[in-house]
Amino acid sequence: MKSIEKAVEALKQSKYIVAFTGAGISAESGIAPFRGENGIWNKYEEKLFEINYFTQHTKEAWSMLCDGFYEAMFKAKPNAAHIVLAKLEKEGYIKAIITQNIDDLHEKAGSKIVYKLHGNASQLHCNNDGNNYPVADFDLTTAPRCKVCNAVLKPDFVFFGEMLPEYDMNMSIKAVSKCDIVIIIGSTGVVYPAASLPYYAKRNNAVIIEINPKPSAFTNEIADIFIPMKAGEAMQKLIDILYIL
Ligand SMILES: [Zn+2]
Which of 96, 144, 202, 214 gives 138 a disulfide partner, CB atoms 3.0 to 4.6 angstroms apart? Predict the structure, then answer.
C-alpha cells in the first residue's frame, strides 16, 4: 500500500486528529519560509526578528518591515492544503490545527480551531498597555503608534528571544496529549519549542503522518507514515482517496 493510502486508512480509524503546520504549507501560497532557498532571511537580516534589536532600534526595524514584508502577507491566499484542512475540520476529522505560521491562512481558509504558536502578522500589539490593533488600520510608512498611549507598536508575532503565547502553547499541549493522529505538514522540525509537540503526541501513542517534499528532522525520529510530497498536492490526493474509500 502506498503511504498516502496508509494515511487515509489511519485517518478513517481515528477519533481525534491534530494538524501541525509549518512554513512549507504556505510556500505554495507564495509566502517565503524564513529558512532555506528564497528564505526571508536572505532578504531581511535575521536581527530584524530579534526582540532585543527591535526594542533598541524600533524605527529602523519598522522601516525594514514596511519594505515588502507585510505586502507579501496580505497578498497571500490559502492553497489546497489549507482548504482541505478546513474541510476536514468541518467534517469532524480535524479537531485542532497547531501552526508555526503567522500568515493567518488557516483562518482565511475557514479553519476555526487554530493555535498559533508564533502569533500572527495581522495584528499589532502595544507592549505598554496591552492593546491590539489590526495592522490594516495603519499605513506603515511610519512606525505605527498606539492610539491610547502613543507608544510604537510591535508586530503581534513572536520574535526570537520572546516567549511563545501561553494560551496557544497550553491548548496545543492539551490537543497533542489527547489526539490519536498528528499530521505534520510543511514543518522541518527544527524550531523549538514548537517542534517538541509532535513528540508529545508520539509518546502518547499517536500515529504520526508527515507530509514534506523532503525528509525532515521528524522523519526518522517519529514519522509512522511519510508522504514525500508538497502540501497542496498531498492533501488534495488524501481527501480524494478518503471520499472514495
Ligand atoms: Zn499603548
Answer: 144
**Does 199 lie in the same domain as 98?**
yes
Tens digits of residue pLDDT in 157-205 = 999 999 999 999 999 999 999 999 999 999 999 989 999 999 999 999 9
Domain identity same for 144 and 241? no
**Same-domain pairing of 241 and 172:** yes
Q: Which of 57, 82, 106, 118 is catalytic?
A: 118
Active site residue 106: no
Distance (Å) from CA 145 to ligand 1 centroid: 8
Ligand 1 centroid from CA 72, angstroms: 27
pLDDT in tens, 60-109: 889 888 777 888 888 899 999 999 999 999 999 999 999 999 999 999 99
Please give the C-alpha separations between residue 195 and each of 32, 182, 189, 215, 236, in angstroms, as whole numbers. 19, 12, 5, 15, 25
Query: Ligand 1 centre from 125 Cα, in Å?
Result: 8
CA 170 / ligand 1 centre spacing (Å): 27
The Cα 19–Cα 34 span in angstroms is 21
pTM over 0.85: yes
Domain housing 208: 1-31+78-118+164-245
Ligand 1 centroid to Cα of residue 112, in Å, is 29
Do 235 and 198 reside in the same domain of the chain?
yes
Q: Does residue 110 sit in the same domain as residue 127?
A: no
Q: Indicate if 47 and 109 belong to the same structural domain.
A: no
